[in-house]
Amino acid sequence: MSWRIPRLPLLAGLDGYETSALRSDVSAGLAIAAVGLPSAIAYPAIAGLPPETGLYASITPLVAYALFGPSHKLIVGPDAATMTVLAAVLAAIFATPGVSTDRVTVAALLALAVGALCLAARAVRLGVLATFLSRPILTGFFAGISLSILIGQIERFTGVDIEADGLVAPVLELLREAVSIHWPSLVLAVGCFALLQVARAFNSPVPGPVIVVVLSVLLSFLFDFEARGIAIVGNIPEGLPSLMVPRMGDFPFDTLLVGAAAIFLVSFGSGVIAARSFGALGGYQVDPNRELSGFGAANIAAGLFGTFPVTASDSRTAVNFSVGGRSQIASLVAAATLMAVLLFLGGILRILPIPALGAILAATALSLIDLAALKHIWRVSRMEFIFALIAMWGPIGLGVLNGVIIAIAATLVYILRKGMYPRDALLGRIPGRDGFYKLHREAAARPVPGFGACMIQGSLLFFNTDYVRDRLLSVAGALPPGTVWLVIDASAIPQIDSTATAMVEEVQEELRKRGIGLGLAELHTEARAMLDRAGVINKIGSAMVFESIEDALTAFATRSDRAAE
C-alpha cells in the first residue's frame, strides 16, 4: 500500500511513501535518538550553551527538515564543526563591552540569520557555494577545528580552569597548574575515552557514546560523583521547547551578520558534503539548491525555538542508513523520542558527569581528522596539501573565526593560482591525418610552413592577461622564419573580460609590426561578443576570425595560392 504526495517543497522527503516501511523508519528513529542524545547534550558545551539547547536542536530542526527538506534519508542536527565556529562567533560578540543579551538568545538569532541566508541563497540558486571550499581546504580546516576541540576538553578532563588560547599555551598552563588537577575527573574522562575507542575499534553494535552515557550515569548514581567533586550536567529543564522570537539586544549587529555568514558557509559546505556522500551510498543525486530549502527551514525552526544553528549530521544519517530508515518519518520518530526524554528523563540526565561529555567531544574531534584524506591529497597534489595545511593552521593559530577567513582566503588564492597561468600549446599537422595536434605531445606532428597555430586553455581575465600576452609574444618570437599568420585556437577559452580584450588588441598590434597577422578560431559566443563590443574584431578584421582552425588553414592556403599567382 502506498500513497502519492505531490512534488511540492513541502513533504518532499515523504514523496511516494510506502506504509510497509513504517517499521524500519520507527526502528531507525529510535536509533537516531539514542545516538544523537549524547552529542545533543555534549555539543552545546563547545559554545558555552546549556545542554537543553542541544536537545532542542535535535527536535525542532528535524521536524522542519522533514517538512521542507528534499532528502528522504538525511538527518540534521548539531555538528561539531558548526558548534566550534558558533563558539568563536559568540566569543567575538561577547568580547564587546556592554553586551547584555544572553548567549542562548544570540545563538538563536544566529540560527535565524543562517536560515535566512540559506533561503536567500536558494532564491538566487547559489547552491554552488557548497563547493566553494574545496575538499582539501575543508579537510585541513576540520582537522584544525578538531585540534581546537581537543584542547577545549582539557578543563572537562582535569577540572582545571584554563584561560589560555591556542594550541600550546593551554597545555603549558595545565602543566603549571598540575597541582590543581582533579584526578577522579581525569581518570573518569580517560576511561570513558578509552571505552569509546574500544567500541569503535570492535564495531560495537551499541554506539560508544550511548554506552558511555548509560554507564557514566549509572556510576554517577551509585557513587555520587557530585559529592566527590566531579562536575555534572546539572538540572535540565523538563518540558518541550516553546516557540519564541529572539529579541534584538545591545550587541554588535555587524559581528553577528559576519558570524552568521561564516557559520552558513562552513555548515552548508560540510552539510552538502555529507549529503552527497550518503547520496552516493544510497544511489540518488543531491541538489545543493534544494538542500538550501531544508537547511534554511531547519535553522529557522532552531532559532524560533531557542537553540543554535544546525546542519546535516553524518553520524545520525549513518545510523539511519545502517538501520534501514526509508524516509523522514525516521526524523519525526527521533524528534518524538527526544521529546519524551525531555519530559521524563531530565532528572536522570542531570547527574551525567561532565568528564564523560568531554570524552565524547574528544572522540568526536579525533574523528574529524581524516588522515587518509590528507595522505591522499599529499600523494595527488603537493600544492593542494599545502593549502590544506594553511586551512588547518588557521583555526589553531588565529582562532576558529579567523580560521574561516583564512580558509576562504586560501580558496581564493588557490582559484587565482589555477587561473593565473593558462596552459598553451603550439599546434601542427600529422602527414596523412586530419586535424591539428599538439606539437609537444605528438612526435609526428609538424608545424605548417608560414602558418602558426597556438591553443590557449583557460579563461582570459584581468589577473592573467600579462602572463598570456608575454606567452603569445614569446610564441610569436619562436615561430620559424617566414611565418605570416598566428591563429589562436580559442575553443578552450570560455570567458574573456574587458582587460583581456585590450591585451588581445595589444598583441595584434605588436604582431602586425613584426609582419604577422593575428587570427582567432572557434571563439565562444560570449567571448566573441565581448571582443566585438570592444572593437577588437574590427581591429583584427572579420576575415581573420574563423569558425575552426581548419577553416583558418583553408583561408591561409587560399591566400598563399593567390599570392603565388
From TrEMBL:
GO terms for cellular component: membrane. Keywords: Membrane, Transmembrane, Transmembrane helix. CDD domains: STAS_SulP_like_sulfate_transporter (cd07042). It comes from the Bacteria. Gene3D superfamilies: STAS domain (3.30.750.24). It is found in: Membrane. Signal peptide: none annotated. Residues 441-556 form the STAS domain. It holds the Pfam family Sulfate_transp. One of its GO terms (biological process) is transmembrane transport. The chain crosses the membrane at residues 26-47, 53-68, 80-99, 105-124, 136-154, 181-199, 211-236, 256-279, 291-309, 329-349, 356-374, 386-416. It is a multi-pass membrane protein. The keyword Transmembrane helix applies. InterPro entries: SLC26A/SulP_dom, SLC26A/SulP_fam, STAS_dom, STAS_dom_sf. This is Probable sulfate transporter. It comes from Sinorhizobium fredii (strain NBRC 101917 / NGR234).
